[in-house]
Amino acid sequence: MLSMVGARMADAMTAASTVAQVRAAGVGRDTALAVAPVTSGDSPGIALAWVGGQAWLAAGGGSPGELLGDLADLDPRWVWWSAREVVPVFLDAGLRPRACWDLGAVGRMLHGLRRDDPGAVWAAAHGLAEPARAPATPGLFDLDDPASAAEPVQADGALSREWAAGGWATEPERAVRWARTAVTLQRRQDAALRQLDDPRPMTPGQPLPLLTARSESAAAMLAVELGRDGLPIDRAGAAEMLTGLIGRRPVDAADEAKLRAERDRRVLDAFAGQPVDLRSPAQVRELLTRVGFDLPDTRSWRLEPHAATMAPVAELLAWRKAERLATTYGWGWLDRQVGSDGRLRGAWGAADAAAGRMTAGAGLHNLPAELRPVVRAEPGHVLVRADLGQIEPRVLAVVSRDAGLARATADDDMYAPVAAALGCDRPTAKVAVLAAMYGQTSGTAGAALRDMDRAYPEAMAYLRAAEHAGLVGTDLRTHGGRLLRMRAPADVGGEPTGEPVSRSGHGRYARNAVVQGAAAEFFKAWAVTVRTGLAGLGDAQIVLCLHDELLLQVRADVVPRARDLLERSLAATGTWWAAGSGVRFVAEITAGASWADTH
Question: Which of 64, 77, 157, 494 could lock 37 by a disulfide, CB 3.0 to 4.6 Å apart?
Answer without folding.
Answer: 64
